[in-house]
Amino acid sequence: MSHALPSHRSNGNCQSTQSQIADLTDSLRDSKVHLLLAASGSVATIKLPLIVKALSVHPNLSIRVLLTPSARRFLAGQAAEQPTVSSLHDFPSVDAVYFDEDEWKEPWKRGNSILHIELRRWADMLVIAPLSANTMAKIVGGMADGIITSVVRAWDARGELDSDVAMNTAMWRHPITAKQIKTLSDEWGVGKDGQGNGWFEVLSVQQKTLACGDIGDGAMMEWTEIVKVIEDRLNLTES
Q: Domain Flavoprotein: where (predicted)?
């Protein structure tokens, strides 16, 4: 199966924060399904363009991408499977890509909207794939030091948030990881059957040869399975 990715097209975040928020607010009434698709600093970020491409078959889906600074380093055009971040704009479903610096581009003044709050209001679902060990630790600790962690910290617990952990096997097997997963899955979780009272779902990791050369668990779920989860949760059907 071919997974050709779009060519580079320059499309930087030149708008002011308030202009970005105005566009976001206008799209609340577009009758589309709204997905926030986030990636943090893991080599599995290179699968993000494939996820977006597969989801772009749904004309009723609007995607807004959130990237940490570390995630951006995996999408710098250094290989065919690692196109530039700006090329994400070429997919028809992608309406915006946000970075940490988009939150406070200019000094805030009373009456201005706040980007991470408006993103939370806009989204029907947030998916973090991959969720790195570092970002997972921040989320469990309640930190809000970037666009992704700020959206999660402000998330309405009645909405759905799915995450797909990706890290080295040694990091996955570290005792602190088990404690953090317990918080996300048991204390905040939606339950094994999806019928729990929680709001956070941790998708299963897999065992494979990792980018570092180690063989073990901790790898992100296959990107095709992530697509299926999103389509199922959002009731998307291919047109």
A: 34-152
Residue 212's pLDDT is what?
A: 65
For residue 159, pLDDT over 70 is answered with: yes
Domain 17-165+222-233 has CATH 3.40.50.2000: no
Residue with tokens 């710098």: 76
- Determine contact, residues 76/45, Cβ cutoff 8 Å: no
Assigned token pair, 47: 């699968």
Helices in the chain by DSSP H: which ranges?
17-26, 48-55, 69-72, 115-122, 133-140, 147-153, 169-172, 175-182, 223-233
Instruction: Classify burial at 96, counting beta carbons within 10 Å of its beta carbon; exposed 0-12, middle 13-18, buried 19 or more.
Output: buried
Nearest to 54 by CA among 40, 41, 35: 35
For 57-84, the pLDDT digits (tens) are 999 999 999 999 999 999 999 999 999 9
Query: Is 230 in contact with 236 (CB distance < 8 Å)?
Result: yes
Sign of the alpha-carbon torsion through 89, 91, 92, 95: negative
C-alpha to C-alpha distance for 221 and 151, rounded to whole angstroms: 23
Residues 151, 157, 161, 164, Cα dihedral to 10°: 90
The residues carrying an active-site annotation are 212
CA distance 207 to 153: 30
Q: Where are the domains of the chain?
A: 17-165+222-233
Whole-prediction pTM: 0.88
Over the stretch 3-23, which tens digit does the pLDDT of each residue have? 444 443 334 466 788 888 888
